[in-house]
Amino acid sequence: FIIGSKYLQLKKKLEDEFPSRLDISAEGTPQATGFFEVTVAGKLIHSKKKGDGYVDTESKFLKLVAAIKAALAQG
């Protein structure tokens, strides 16, 4: 399985918003569209694997950005 362009676009968008602040990982899987996780300061903020789904709408993206900002504010 090859990690797709949607992942790369989302990763770039998040990295542009939060340069050098995030740990974004993805894993291609044969039985699903893959896993996508965002970690901030060691805390898992978003996990497709754990039920958060894929960030495929602007509202989901804004929710993720808000969660990242909150995690960064907590330090």
TrEMBL record:
Gene3D superfamilies (alphabetical): Glutaredoxin
GO cellular component, one term: cytosol
Quaternary structure (record): Interacts with DPYSL2, PRDX1, YWHAB, YWHAG, HSP70 and HSP90.
Cellular location(s): Cytoplasm
Protein family according to the UniProt entry: Belongs to the SelWTH family. Selenoprotein W subfamily.
Recorded superkingdom: Eukaryota
NCBIfam families: CXXU_selWTH
Main location: cytoplasm
Keywords, alphabetical: Antioxidant, Cytoplasm, Glutathionylation, Redox-active center, Selenocysteine
Function: Plays a role as a glutathione (GSH)-dependent antioxidant. May be involved in a redox-related process. May play a role in the myopathies of selenium deficiency.
Sample GO molecular function, one term: antioxidant activity
Residue intervals passing through the bilayer: none
Name used for this protein in its record: Selenoprotein W
Source organism (scientific name): Cebus imitator
